[in-house]
Amino acid sequence: MVLSFAQRYSALAIQFASMVLLARLLSPEEFGTFAVAAALVTLANVLQDFGAGNYLVKETELTRPKIETAFSLALVIAWPLGLLLFLSAPFLAEWYANPAVNEVLRLLSLTFILVPFSTPVLALMRRDMQFGRLYGVGVASAAATASVSISLALHGTGVTSLAWGLLAGSLASTVLAHCLRPGYLFLKPGVSHWAEVLGFGGQSAAIAALSELGNQAPSLVAGRLLGFEATGLLHRATATIHIYRKGVLDGLMPVLLPAFAGKVRSGISLKPLYLRGISYLTVIGWPFSLVLALLAHPLVRVLFGDQWDAAVPVIQVLCLLGVVTPFIHLNRSLFIAVGRIDISLKIQLIVQPLKIVLVVVAATQGLLPLAFALCLPPLLNATISHGYLTKLLDYGIADLLQAGRQSLAVTLLAAAVPLAVIAALGAEPENSLLALALGGLGAFAGWLTGLMVFAHPAKTEIGIAVSRVLPGFVRAS
To answer: Are residues 305 and 389 in the same domain?
Structure first.
């Protein structure tokens, strides 16, 4: 877990620095153009390995023929998808009346060539929990993406600098993965376990496709109905609140499935692990969302400049997502681990079509109504998931409330100083850097104090992590 989070925080630091620089080199309209193209590519991305990676992670008895079958499935899915995206780029650019969409899409379609070669080896690293190697791969990919994007943006390449950066990152990830885990570059095509891989992969791909369709629908719809500047503002707002996802969840998720699957294979109940996970996610997600809503204006001014001021109210509305999403993030890995991936599919079949309808209707009313609409589907997802999980894990609503009780107290204490700063300096302070520094440091101090005062379970985990990383310091203290 430490290595997984180290990867995410290292990559996040690189991405964050590049985001700050690129926000000053590219306009909201250029970011909007990239957001639309990236949304189209992401919809295809979720199908590119057809669940082959998760199949390799969860499979109880893994053999070379099964790996070869997963590779073959990724190959026959990813390459035709990439070709289709490449050929359809001009028509999609015409649909959005933006020629730059064509060039960005064609560049991003080249990443599909690499997918079949990276999927098996990265999945095997996850399965064997080789997160030290995954750390190297993730950081190298982020560094390549950032350096290429910034270099090209400085030379006036514009929106395509972002596409070239992602292509460079994908290439770096694939090459380094095979250097660190050799022996899987030249896998033979195989079909001996075709039905087995397809059975799992079909459901996994359908879940991922539905989920990403819902995730990317706001950018796609906004690009068509609200224009590319509004789409750029939505993209920036979403990227800002996703600092929590990138900093916490992306470090947690690679560990969850192999950890849950290992517990199931050992016959250990997942109930305590799930409730503890809820407690940890809420004590991070809730304070982050509330503090971000309070300090949104000074944060945007300091990081991105005043050209992004219109994104502030969108960020504040989307912070409502932080109340609900901690009750969603563990669910997909848990359903897969207990052999009930079908439940995830049922939930997505209900939630995502509703989300798309809400997005289309709300977008006709403006950007803020669209942001409010995005807060409703996660609530429905959490409600339905809870109904299934109470039966699978045998817990009640009282257990869930207990898991979040201490997190709520910590959240209120973390928000005390930022609230005082905003009351003293105003919601749009003249000195944004001072407000952000005082509010941010005060929030962190309040959060740490809350962990100690209310004896939150995360306090123990932090102590364990520190004792392993800095044993000498802990003994001395």
So the answer is: yes
